[in-house]
Write a structure and sequence with these properties.
Strand content: 25-35%
Radius of gyration: 28 Å
Helix content: 25-40%
CATH topology of one domain: Immunoglobulin-like
Shape: globular
CATH class of one domain: Mainly Beta
Number of helices: 17
CATH architecture of one domain: Sandwich
């Protein structure tokens, strides 16, 4: 009898819980969130945002703006650009209180309909921040939109009302049929991951890997649309071939062409690229643009779907720490070179030159001996995106170190499997694993997959290159593919100071000194103003030098170049308004220059590795 009572109680409890959850889900389903974005003063760099919330019946509602944007690991405090925040509930103005740096509380008194209005100032040119002027609006969504607290998984709609001289909207969001410039997002992760370009952009399309691709060009330029259609499609096809499938039916490239531009930011089904508008007709400029395309498109898999476990679901209020950006970004930097080579844009010699150049960058960065790839990834929030004058001396970019790790790991896998497997197999397997598990990977899981594919232990490799700061054994790994690498001093026989700076009307303001260099040892400081060298005024010492930039190294001054290693250079500097003399004992350049060449007498095993590695 007692057991039956317990069972009845349990059944009633379960039923009550089910009813409660059903009510909660029904309530959430009734909540509707919509935005309207318009532009009354684009010339002053403002967007007008109206946010409508219905069905959320509470005493108060908190709405929040993200403080960072995924893919760019820095708290940027987007809320600082919000102005004139106000709200009405049931048609009446209500009290609003800011309760956190990025959170506004609307005292709605259980009203079913809330309207929020605010303005956003947008005048920072980058791929990760909103920008508006009279010619166009780029809406980087984490800097424009807000979400009700705790409702990241809620759907929303967005209506764009272009300025009266604009006629086009480009975005990866799903359009709502029958409603011009109106879109839907299934949740706020999707909305925050879908940039919007508004204006009169030049739009063209191509199809590759069964996917429709749209390119929205802003800012003009000397690009050849027909050529880009063909060449961008080649890259898409090569990348899709690695993973075996393309997860999108539509993909958008938003390209901002400036006098001098660069950089990119990945999204789930789109990317924003910065480019130099008149560099498309040069070999270097065109290859640079295609490299950027290859890099950001690879993020379609690596980062957006094949991702470290810390990078999603996102915490938009705080930093999201991971030790695996060396895979997310570093490997992508490596693969951009592989894809350009596989697509036929570089030959073997160019491919090797690009890769060995990446190795040289790590070898010649003093901070590579002090910070590991894992630590660089974790510290992206405090060092990577906030470099100072000493960053090169105590840190290494996870892009650069990760690219080198990717090269070494790829060669190790190919060599261990006698050309049967490569890093491609690891990336595809990890992509499928993340897809199946519906979550990101841990560092241990990535390592386990590398070992499974290669059939060998990578514990020592991880210790040395991922978590350690060992010197890169480039000759060993390139040797697997029959590639000989030679090393020489970057400036043989010539002394260097290890200092650089910016020219001013008064002298050379030091902006950087290299660890253990003559400048470092002698105590020459950043912000010292160099007035003369060996009693020769700076202007006289530079009189025969044709400068392309005010940023120069002390080493370009002829007076320095005439000296020998071990000679003393006397500098008169002004520090904090006081003049003093500093003597530099000149040293040999610690930097190296690497050269890679294919060994014509490579063994069959080495040739097999090279063939697998290059993918051709």
């Amino acid at each position: 009898m007692q057991q039956n009572t317990v069972n009845m109680f349990n059944k009633k409890s379960i039923l009550s819980l089910v009813l409660l959850l059903t009510c909660i889900m029904a309530a959430k389903a009734q909540v509707k969130i919509g935005f309207e974005v318009s532009f009354k003063e684009p010339q002053a760099h403002y967007a007008e945002v109206q946010m409508n919330i219905s069905g959320l019946v509470k005493d108060y509602v908190d709405v929040k703006m993200p403080v960072w944007t995924p893919g760019s690991y820095l708290v940027r405090e987007f809320e600082k650009s919000v102005e004139e925040f106000k709200a009405t509930a049931a048609g009446k103005a209500v009290k609003v209180e800011k309760v956190r740096k990025n959170t506004w509380r609307i005292f709605s008194a259980k009203a079913a309909d809330i309207q929020i209005n605010y303005r956003v100032y947008a005048f920072e040119i980058s791929v990760r921040t909103p920008f508006i002027d009279e010619s166009h609006a780029f809406l980087s969504p984490t800097g424009i939109f807000m979400h009700p607290d705790g409702m990241i998984k809620s759907s929303s709609t967005v209506k764009i009302i272009p300025f009266n001289t604009w006629s086009k909207v480009s975005t990866g969001l799903t359009p709502i049929a029958g409603k011009q410039f109106t879109y839907k997002a299934t949740d706020f992760d999707i909305l925050y991951d879908s940039p919007i370009e508004v204006g009169n952009q030049d739009i063209f399309e191509f199809t590759a890997a069964g996917v429709r691709h749209e390119v929205a060009m802003y800012g003009g330029g000397n690009y050849d649309k027909e050529k880009l259609k063909v060449d961008m499609a080649k890259i898409v096809e090569k990348e899709t071939a690695v993973y075996g499938e393309n997860p999108n039916k539509y993909y958008l490239f938003i390209v901002h062409n400036f006098l001098k531009g660069g950089g990119g930011l990945e999204h789930l089904n789109s990317t924003t690229l910065g480019a130099t508008r008149n560099a498309y007709n040069t070999e270097e400029g065109y290859k640079g643009f295609l490299s950027l395309v290859a890099h950001e498109y690879h993020h379609l898999w690596n980062v957006k779907r094949l991702r470290p476990i810390a990078l999603g679901p996102f915490d938009y209020d705080n930093e999201n720490y991971t030790t695996n950006l060396w895979v997310a970004e570093g490997f992508t930097s490596y693969y951009e070179n592989k894809y350009l080579h596989r697509a036929g844009f570089t030959d073997v010699n160019e491919f090797l030159k690009d890769l060995i150049g990446g190795v040289g960058t790590v070898l010649n960065t003093p901070g590579a001996k002090y910070q590991s790839a894992a630590s660089s990834s974790y510290d992206a929030w405090i060092i990577g995106y906030r470099p100072n004058e000493n960053s090169k001396n105590n840190s290494i970019s996870y892009y650069n170190k990760g690219e080198v790790i990717g090269i070494l790991m790829d060669l190790e896998i190919i060599n261990a499997t006698k050309g049967a497997k490569s890093l491609d197999d690891v990336m595809k397997a990890m992509y499928l694993q993340c897809k199946t598990l519906k979550r990101g990977y841990t560092d241990a899981e990535f390592k386990a997959m590398v070992e499974k594919i290669s059939g060998i232990s990578f514990t020592n490799f991880w210790t040395k290159y991922v978590n350690g700061v060992d010197d890169v054994e480039y000759a060993k790994y390139f040797g697997y593919a029959g590639v000989n690498v030679s090393s020489e001093n970057a400036t043989p026989g010539k002394p260097v100071t290890g200092a650089s700076g910016q020219l001013t009307n008064e002298g050379l303001m030091i902006t950087s000194t290299t660890r253990n260099s003559a400048a470092w040892v002698s105590g020459l400081n950043v912000n010292d103003l160099v007035l003369s060298l060996d009693d020769t005024s700076l202007s006289e010492a530079l009189s025969t030098v044709r400068l392309k930039s005010p940023m120069i190294s002390l080493d370009v001054i002829p007076l320095v170049g005439k000296k020998n290693i071990g000679d003393v250079l006397k500098l008169k500097v002004r520090r904090d308004g006081l003049e003093k003399e500093i003597s530099l004992t000149l040293k040999e350049n610690p930097n190296v220059r690497l050269n890679a060449t294919v060994n014509e007498n490579a063994t069959p095993a080495q040739k097999a590795v090279l063939k697998k590695w290059t993918g051709i």
